[in-house]
Amino acid sequence: MQKKTARAVRPPQSQNKPGTEKKMNPVPESEPVNQSGGKLQGKVAIITGGDSGIGKATAILFAQEGCDVVIPYLSETTDAKDTQTEVEQLGQKCVLIKGDLGKEPHCKKVIDKTISEFGKLDILVNNAANHWESKSLEDITTEQMMKTFHSNVFSVFWLTKFALKHLKKGGSIINTVSVTAYRGSGHLIDYASTKGAVLAFTRSLSANLAEKGIRVNAVAPGPIWTPLIASTFSKKKVSEFGSDTPMKRAGQPNEVATCFLFLALEDSSYITGQVLHPNGGEIVNG
Predict the structure, then answer these.
(1) Surface-to-core class of residue 106, CB atoms within 10 Å of its CB (0-12 exposed, 13-18 middle, 19+ buried)
(2) Which residue ranges make up each domain of the chain?
(3) Which CATH superfamily is domain 44-276 in?
(4) Catalytic residues
């Protein structure tokens, strides 16, 4: 169903409480914006880090809704090809781009190749990130700090900057932040700092782009079972991962992907500058 157009200007009007919709001018829009299935038909999305974890689950879910996807990934080619296969089995195109998003020229290459392949870009999901556990601030070298910020913050800035001239009204930018952006992390100090930066970037850019009709939102996962977890922490921490949440378990990538889908859809057309929190029940007031 097509949306009505004139939303900003309404004639003066009043009613006795509690009021009735039929007397309102214009009448509030209550019908579903889109019907279920194929909600992203004909759309093109870039999903960084889509080779595994949350990015993979999001790529598959987007494809299920009719979206072609571009997956920039760092090095795990086997995982990336597995994701590509699953996307293509759903009848959608999937372009893989290997390389380091912490380098500005590669970010430009990702956007250029997307436009070359598809001629447009509708959705940008800045999801790729990295972290290293450190017991104290003194253990974090300048090299590690720079690497974390290049991977997690600069990549988001560069990709978004190069994507903007191709995103049109109705476009959506969705950034992955983290519960650590809200409560911090004693052993992931540099990582939590980058996620705080991406959170501020999300809110600032949303205000900047609101009049252009491009929405900017974020998803802040809690403990989610991904390869980054298994490759970062000790065996004991991995075995207990997520057990300290109110739900007493880690989440699965497909329990987070639905947040990205919602924020990519016109279903969330009145939401920008906001964050969804799939974190197992932790209250973070953000």
Answers:
(1) middle
(2) 44-276
(3) NAD(P)-binding Rossmann-like Domain (3.40.50.720)
(4) 191
